[in-house]
Amino acid sequence: RRMADTAADGARAAQHPARNEVLVDGLTFSSTFDSGNMLSVDRGRDLESGGCEYVVTAAPDAPKPDTPPEAPLPPTSWFHFSISGASAGQEISLQVVNLIKHSALYDHDMRPVVRSLPSQKKWERLTYQVLKDGQFSIRFTLPVAKGGDTQFVAFCYPYSYTDLQRQLRRLDADFSTFDHDMKKSAAARSRYRTTSQPIYYHRETLVHSLDGRKVDLITISSLDNIMDEREEMLPDLFPDHPIVPRPHQFQNKRVVFVTARVHPAETPSSFVLDGVLNFLLKDDPRAHKLLKECVFKIIPMLNPDGTTSIERTIDGCGTHSKLALHIDLHAHAAKRGCFIYGNRYKSLNDQAASQVYPKLIGLNSVYFEYDQCNFSEQNMHLVEKRDGGLSKEGSARVALHRETSAISPPVYFYTLECNYNMGRRACTIPHSGSGLMSTAPLSPEVARKAYVPKYTTASWEDVGKGMMVAVLDWLGTNEWSRIPHAPFRTMAGLVQEIRHEVAPSFNVKTQPNEAQSKAETVAKNTLLVPLKKDVPKDVVKAKKKLADVKRIECVELPPT
Hints:
- Its cofactor is Zn(2+).
- It is built from 15 helices and 24 strands.
- By secondary structure, it is α+β, with helices and mostly antiparallel strands.
- A seven-stranded mixed sheet has the order 12-13-17-16-18-22-19, sandwiched between helices. It has a six-stranded antiparallel sheet with strand order 1-2-5-11-7-8, with no helix packed on it. A five-stranded mixed sheet has the order 3-4-6-10-9, with no helix packed on it.
- The chain is globular.
């Protein structure tokens, strides 16, 4: 089956208008692979150093049905191609044309990512500067370190359909799919460091895309409150049924829906989703607690014509558990940072309640910038040029919000946007009692930076992890929460802070929370250290040097 899938992917790639191979001056330019995008290659201007610049035309996005044949090529964001036949030490000068004018990206030093196979498998941002011109095209030089290697160049870190299927096959092998009494395999225990906490994992095909590819739907939870009853069938969906049965239902669990890749070029959203999956399946007491409380429905790669499927799939999540959150993952070219687009509610209380979850994400990931979030009415109607002039009324966030507005308790719908390049500032988050580093990131593998860093795949994965820990905070069941170490100290203080922030837009005056103001003063004057029998001498010595520290508070060590 795996060989058949790979062969089918290769056949589709060869037939696609963006998949081409061109030989120029002994160099072979190719995009005949999954996620490849290159229409043509031509010799460009002569260079003073000798040789020439090669002009690579990115294949256009699909034009609208009424576009006349003589119209210019519609521009695109995504390009991805390879170059083989270069010798060691050679520098290949490139100009990529037919690009959307993402001035905001390249004004902040956005650079393509490159790798060289077989010697360098990891994608890295280009070290050479990228120049843009008024047409809009970009120019850069690609150095060749090793002869015989194939150089790959892409707009952003690639994450193809083939990559996704490879990852899902690993999960299929590690977790028994249909037996709700399953125990995790030795491979799963090794890869995910799982212990005695069984995980319910179910993968099914929601629908097939126009190209015949699978749109996967994954269900993840614990075995707590599992029922013999299966989820219902929905018309025209789940084509592999009954060979692949529907997942089991769960009694009285919250449902969290996560979707990604409505737009094919938005690869950062796939890395956020990887962060979600990796956290849910790891041996972490927070993950165990989260799966005990919730059922996660995940569509990792949703084709653009799949909005109706989202709506109907949400309707079919089961009658014994209630949908609580839906987060649709995207990438953004104009606005820096990782942030949320939310919806506008009619009352101050409802609006404040809807902004609690995004605020909690900012508490759990250094890469999420709450102050860049947008919950305005205007942003629910905005017409997006990048979406071909479509209104945001048709987005999952807005459309599903309107469809479910009468439901109680309310369901919250969000769009998570992650910039392709970088954030606006270096963020810090409160510690969770894990030591003196009160501004340490959520995950120890993500290095703390004092400057505004360029995003990597690890940055986006950290946002995904932060999203999951935020769900636990939102449910009020996080025993290792960062909330007590934030300025607002309590969930009530957090809500009061949001109310104070939102009130002017409702023409309501609010007073700052006195308890919150006092908590801020205490937080500024407190040095938090790990719980030990005696306060370390070096900490006491440090306290004497810090005039603003009035007391030392010892805290227990939760998981990092």
